[in-house]
Amino acid sequence: MQEQSQTRKAINAGITFAVILIFLALIGFTFTGAELLGDIVGLDVQLRQRQMPSRDTITAYAMFVGIIGLWMGLRAGRPDPERSDTWVRAALLGVLAGIVAGVIFGLFLILVGTFAFNGVDLRKQLVAMSVEAVAMLTFGQAPIVGAAIGTGLLAVTGAIGGLLGRGIGRGAWRESVSAWRERATDWYQGLPITRQIRRSRISEVILYAVLIGVVLFLPTILSSYWNYNLGTVGIYVLLGLGLNIVVGMAGLLDLGYVAFFAIGAYTVALLTAPQPHALNWSFWAALPVGIVLAMISGILLGIPVLRLRGDYLAIVTLGFGEIIRILSRSDLLTSFTGGPRGVRNVAGPMLFGTPFNNERQFMYLIIAGCLILIFVTSRLQSSRVGRAWMAMREDETVARAMGINTWKYKLLAFAIGAAFAGLGGVLFASRNQFTGPEDHNLLVSINVLALVIVGGMGSIPGVIFGALALKGLPEVLRELDTFRMLAFGALLVAMMVLRPEGIWPSKRRRLELELHEEAAAIEEALPERLTPTPGGEST
């Protein structure tokens, strides 16, 4: 039975990676992957119209397929913890997975190659399937020969991957590394100076000082482009800190969070821009007004939804966000909000007579805002208010039974979260010197909610890493052009599968998930419930 399970696992791995290869070929990523590998090893990878692919192009493509095969072999050859697999069996499992993948992918190559090489233009239905691209997929050979080459390559790399999977899964080096790590940890924690540092929390102070120093130094060495992108990340950190209070701490699912962001942005725009009202306020005068109006809006939204929970709360807040967006782009309010054209020439801040007129200077303002809100959030998290929020998140009924005024703390969460979003909106509009309806759509709320979940609900470092992952990583992957969002999405899926608690979850959240997993495991391990017989006895 175990042998059949391992064989089935290898076959499933082959089918899975064959589908991956076909999908990558259909979207044209096989050439992009080969091009990236070619740049690394110094190969001239290119596809010229009406020309067969060069040797360098085929070599880089073979390397790309080989990497897929190694990955597949690692999955297929991973040993079963309940049996002792041999090296030969691991290699055979990798070969089996490679043959299955090669046969399926080969049938695809024969199909598209037959059509492409006989004058059928596949690009009408499949944009990436040009004759030159199909020739690369078949290694510059006839479709049947190319299918055979691909199958052989996947079988060989699958065998190598199977051996690597067996070695990684049962290698003695893992036990050695774990043992040495435990010894080093015990030795370090046993030092008198280590115990003293832990008691005095000097290490935390030093760590925070170093991090703040790095953050303050970073804008001086970065270009305007990266300062702008990191500034956007910083604004999303502000938004994430606010939504983390509402969702991560208080457990209130808010899908209309972008409304408070828009209120802050439009407040500073309408008060400082020369049009449409010509009020000409300074940035520093408009800043507190934007924050206060966003806070009041949060309270006004919170009052009618105090009794709602879960999906119902999400629907109502979603409607509120859409109302604000529709009003901002309404032609009837063009004379007041600027309508679809938005508001231009939003004033920027001035400090001691010096205007913030470049990305580096504005980056420091965003950093200051992030540091202030991080400090406020950390104090709230460890206060009575924070504990009340977390009690509400776990079970609102129990929290109310314990004497917690849930209505008060709900309104407080909405108000503080909205104030944080208002600050983010003020900085966003002032930095861009413009704000419009398209800057405050539903996607902003979804992105902020996603970064809170991806980073780790209830965690301040999680918000920072979540913002870097969701807003910074796509810019790093920009060289992948149209495939950057595909790569970004794949990374998100992998992260949520492998680490569902988030990148950096809070200690409380991590403990809660561990307790839930232990309870589920115990429940599965329990025998079936005893069923009473008609005589009153149990069986």
How would you describe what is shown here?
It is a single chain. With 539 residues, the chain is mainly alpha-helical. The chain folds into 2 domains: 2-170, no CATH class; 222-505, ABC transporter involved in vitamin B12 uptake, BtuC (Orthogonal Bundle). It is 72% helix and 1% strand. It has 22 helices and 4 strands. The protein has helices spanning 2-26, 29-41, 55-76, 87-116, 131-137, 143-170, 172-190, 192-200, 202-221, 224-249, 258-272, 283-302, 310-328, 334-337, 359-381, 384-394, 396-401, 406-432, 442-455, 460-476, 484-498, 507-525, and strands at residues 343-344, 350-351, 354-355, 434-435. Strands 1-4 form a two-stranded antiparallel ribbon. A two-stranded antiparallel ribbon has the order 2-3. Strand 2 and strand 3 (354-355) form a beta hairpin. The chain starts with a helix and ends in a 14-residue tail after the last helix.
